[in-house]
Design a protein that fits this description.
alpha/beta, Glucose Oxidase, domain 1, 9-stranded mixed sheet, two-stranded antiparallel ribbon, 23% strand
């Protein structure tokens, strides 16, 4: 019986095969990553916009906004999450004005605004001089959660934090306090222009939040800003391995033009 013979593979053959495989893998990665990194603004729907903002870093969005619009559109270091979270959605704005009262309907508009919002909304509430007033708590958070809101941003305080953490509803606020707005505030409008922690917000603007903070993207420029932010993200993430390899951040910045 004639023994089976297998072809010999020398070192050159093995090396060449490895190189071909590496090129093929790299090419596949480029094809997979490129659409995410460089979206076409003209082809972005609401769904693709939100998907993009939910994956890009808020720091890159902030940089892109500053480059495109020449504006600071990020909230201050005081606007912090009740737990680590990342979300993006369309702003539902609410304004409360300071007013001592005994009117049982003084805040009814605040609740109606929640029930009128829907999936992918972000509740943006401005409580006048409200750093020590809880603008929302567990009941409002439960309603937002049930309506599939993306999250809430409160220029004021938040309470019932243990429950909000339990149900996993993300909230950014200026602080955690046990107080109430009932009898101390009056609803002043919903889906109107507001200034939240120093940043103008219009109804329908995109709110993006992560561990670095909160940024507001004007709806009219959202596609343009996202495309640039994705490009910036792609460059920055590519730089990490380059810096480690060369042990030089200067060389990486020269090559990628990103800091």
């Amino acid at each position: 019986m004639t023994p089976l013979r297998f072809p010999r593979f020398n070192r050159i053959t093995v090396v060449m095969g490895s190189m071909i495989l590496a090129v093929a893998v790299f090419s596949s990665l480029v094809v997979l990553l490129a659409p995410t990194a460089f979206s076409n603004p003209a082809e972005m729907t609401d769904a693709t916009l939100l998907d993009g903002y939910r994956h890009v870093e808020v720091a890159s969005v902030s940089d892109a906004l500053e480059k495109i619009a020449g504006q600071r559109m990020y909230m201050s270091h005081s606007m912090r999450p009740i737990f680590h979270s990342k979300f993006a959605g369309f702003a539902v704005t609410v304004q409360l004005k300071k007013e001592e009262n005994h009117d049982p309907d003084a805040l009814s508009g605040m609740l109606a605004a929640i029930d009128q919002g829907g999936a992918n909304s972000v509740y943006v509430m401005v409580v006048e001089d409200g750093a020590n007033i809880a603008g929302m708590g567990g009941l409002m958070g439960t309603a937002m959660m049930a309506r599939n809101y993306s999250g809430a941003v409160i220029a004021g305080g938040v309470r019932d934090v243990a429950y909000l953490q339990k149900i996993g509803f993300p909230v950014f606020a200026l602080g955690i306090v046990p107080s109430t707005s009932v009898n101390h505030y009056r609803f002043a409008g919903a889906n109107i222009p507001v200034v939240c922690d120093g940043v103008p917000v219009g109804a329908g603007d995109i709110i993006a939040a992560d561990t670095d903070g909160v940024v507001v993207v004007p709806r009219a420029r959202a596609a343009e800003v996202l495309a640039l932010a994705q490009e910036m993200d792609f460059k920055e993430h590519s730089m990490y391995a380059y810096i480690e390899k060369l042990k030089s951040i200067e060389e990486a910045v020269k090559k990628f033009g990103r800091l």
